[in-house]
Write a structure and sequence with these properties.
Strand order of the largest sheet: 1-2-3-4-5-6-7
Largest sheet: 7 strands, antiparallel
Shape: elongated
Helix content: under 10%
Number of helices: 1
Number of strands: 7
Low-confidence stretches: 1-6
Distance between the termini: 40 Å
Mean pLDDT: 82
Strand content: over 45%
Structural class: mainly beta
Radius of gyration: 19 Å
């Protein structure tokens, strides 16, 4: 287990309950803009998101983040109960603008799924997620590559 040393406010990023998540955190002031687009033509679906957030922390430090994501799915079968698709997500941000160092996270996912019932889905996804330019902050690069098998029931 690697512990970050220095400032007493530093945390062990390997034991944090939000490990893998990255964002500005709690802020004093936040200005955000988000745009979403969804288009469906027969079995083909496209979803896109753009988000921009900037503001200040309680300490007065400024942050700036932007994110975009695109997803394309094709649904097929008698009731469009099967699907295959691809998703790409990119986040770039700076938790301290005075340091002028930006980090980014990008993820690509390939997915296949089956709606067993209207409210029950079984899906398989291959994920490749990379944390970029974090070495100066955390002393190591990080990422995730792997296969996920999920089942979800919603009401």
């Amino acid at each position: 287990m690697k512990r970050i040393t220095g400032d007493p406010a530093d945390v062990d990023i390997t034991r944090d309950h939000t490990t893998g998540r990255w964002g500005p955190g709690t802020t004093n002031k936040d200005n955000s803009l988000m745009a979403n687009l969804f288009v469906k033509a027969k079995g083909l679906e496209f979803f896109g998101t753009y988000e921009l957030a900037n503001g200040t922390y309680v300490t007065g430090k400024e942050f700036r983040f932007n994110q975009y994501a695109v997803e394309g799915l094709y649904r097929f079968g008698n009731n469009e109960q099967f699907y295959g698709g691809i998703r790409y997500n990119f986040v770039r941000g700076n938790t301290d603008l005075s340091a002028s160092e930006y980090q980014s996270v990008n993820r690509i996912q390939l997915a296949a799924g089956w709606f067993i019932l209207k409210s029950t889905v079984l899906k398989v996804e291959y994920v490749n997620q990379n944390y970029n330019d974090f070495i100066a902050v955390y002393g190591a690069s990080a990422g995730f590559k792997g296969l996920m098998i999920e089942n979800a029931i919603s009401f």
